[in-house]
Write the structure tokens for this entry.
Amino acid sequence: MTQASRKNKSLHSSITLQMTGISKRFGTVQALSDVSFTVRSGTVHALVGENGAGKSTLMKILSGVYKQDTGSIEIHGRPCTFDKPEQALTAGVSMIYQELDLAEHLTVAENVFLGNEPAGPLPFTVDYKAMVSKTVELAKRLNFEIDPKAAVENLSIGDCQIVEILKALIRNASIIVMDEPTSTLSESGAERLFEVVRHLRDQGISIIYISHRLEEIIGLADEVTVLRDGRVVHSELVTKLDIAQIISYMVGRELKEFFPARDVKIGEVCVKVEHLSSDGRINDISFDIRSGEIVGMAGLVGAGRTDVAGAIFGVQKKTSGTITIDNELRNITSPTDAIANNIAFLTEDRKRTGLCLQLPCTWNITLPNLAAIGMKNIIRPTRENKIAEDMAERIGIKWLGPQAPVDSLSGGNQQKILIARWLLANSKFMIFDEPTRGIDVGAKKEVYTLLNQLAEQGKAILFISSELPELFGIADRILVMRRGRLVGNLKTSETTQEQVMHLAAVEAN
Amino acid sequence: MSRFMRQLLPFGSLILIICFLSAYEPDTFLTLNNFMNVLRRSSVNGIIALGMTSVIISAGIDLSVGSMLALSGMTGAYAMIAIGGMVPQEGALVFGTLVGIVAGLVCGLLNGVLITKLKLPPFIVTLGTMSAFRGISYVMNAGQPYNVPSYKYLGSGVVMGIPVSVVIFAVIVAIASFLLRYTRFGRYTYAIGSNREAAFHAGVNVDRNLIYIYTLTGLFVGIAAMIATSRTVSAQPTAGIALELDIIASVVIGGASLAGGRGSITGTIIGTLLISFLRNGCTLLGISTNVQLIVIGAIIIAAVAVDQLARAKAEAGQTG
């Protein structure tokens, strides 16, 4: 379709979805304020914005996961209220999340018809033949070939997404929301997906397309709406915008968080990572960090930032590369080695890879440090509790006591338990992966202060974050990752959020 | 809910059973002799349950303990007989005892290595070794027991009025408590059971610790096996059939969670004694062993159900 006809279509087609004046508040955080969002039938509407801009909240309201505080939703001109996700599904809204939601062991056809199986000739049976033929027919309408009898677990991620789309079509979806669908796809996989999306659009279905990859949006979308700080800052036809303009609308979030000042004393090179690769997920990554330096790492979801940390820390296998700390080559094949070599790693998912939730706070704090606090052979609980209490006092953990289970603490305090753990380890090289995710503003500020203190003590810090403002507020230098490669190594004072976003989100030619 | 509260229920039940039996059968139940008898019977199961406690805390399971008991006993007794003519009798008995204990340790080590190196679920590995160990026990002497008539000390010996087996049980209780509460091994065991990924990311050598856990259990089973052999002065290839279920029951009644991360030595002792006293009481009251099975089954389900309920309530209180 030519640019001109795309433009015409957007202007003249009828309105499928009209969200008006949507506001939503979580505790003290105003996630959305007075958001209005219009999607026309048979168009691809891109929704962009930085992490925390409110995209997911808006989509969760549309799909009935959250209920808006104020505002209305109309679909095909009919007002809708969704109290639960099933109601949104019935109204024709289908969500395709990043983590796909398929029954792995069932076949393609069984997944497509899950919950909507056609009845067979006998009671309590299903018409498997009809499911298979209907699946093939639907796929053909999208110009796509898929084996309806293949087990989903054997499909590529791209094909799984197509199964999700077919599932949406069976439910007569008129609006399909796709959340970062290409973040886990290869280039050719992405191309095939775009083909399918165009076919869907030509059949009159509206697609809300969430992505950080801006050139994708330029190539695929008809309209784009930019959110920032829970508000719509711009909504326009894609043909009237270029990537630089979109980026300028996205970034420049107000620096709500106060970033404490730091006495910067950058010393000698402390950490040297050279030619680090891991299993095709990251490729030839080299950088160094000086003592007293905070190096930020930016990149989109799936760019391989956590893989860099994992490969350094021995969580995953390195296929090549070396790590040098204080001019000494370190051989690290497991987290045990990494800790012994003075490295700390605060992981991004504190529930999955961080905490033992039912166990006491003290135990969680001392877990990697028993040898370091002189309890290699025999644990002395009284002294151990004292050490944990001192740490808790130092960083202000609110708990019922050192033996209280960690799951009795709030999210921010749970995060502080992990920070206390790595402070106690007193490592030379500290990796923080999204340390402020899911904690409130006050706790965030305390984390920033701590990072500063650590840097002042001469630690080398790698600070991974998806929030550009905090990277710019804290880091001395910013590394930018894209698709498993390091594409930027910039002094914070000499770069802009626009430039970093451009490196992270736009494919180099 | 505090650890103390969690154990209150099984402990309360234990006291209740003892009071009830004391009131109904004061002449037969409430005697020192009977109590020693119950303790002596508990010692074999209790020692194995102590090992099983660390396995269950680590979110694992060991189904092979019953077969391991038979195999260790058979190996120990075989060693006694084989070396019998060559050394003084006492030397042969000590040697055989050590061989039996080492046999248990090796069985446990094998479980641990298979679980970690082949990355198989403990349920599957120990289901397999349960069958294999039993098979070896039968093959060793063509299904016949080894008789060791002079091997009496561990089973019926007495030290200062206390049965030797009870003394050994007490010593192992102390060792197991110490290991779980005051060593890195114990701490890592809880951590692995609570969240294996988190333990790994905190530098815990998960595989090595798991091997230690299963080996320790094997060692305890080996010791229990020699006590059991001594009690009957023969090693039976049929010893310990379905024993694993009793052991798991004791540990779970004691408040351990099969999902891992939760359990204690105190709880396991209470769980073991609860089942022993129940058996003893039923026998004294003339309730048949068949009916005992029904009663014990009901108790297992009731204990876990009440525990779950109490925890759900505690959690609701926390958030609500």
Remarks:
- The longest helix of chain A spans residues 187-202.
- DSSP finds 18 helices and 20 strands in chain A.
- Residues 1-5 of chain A have pLDDT under 50 and may be disordered.
- Residues 345 and 431 of chain A are 5 Å apart (CA to CA).
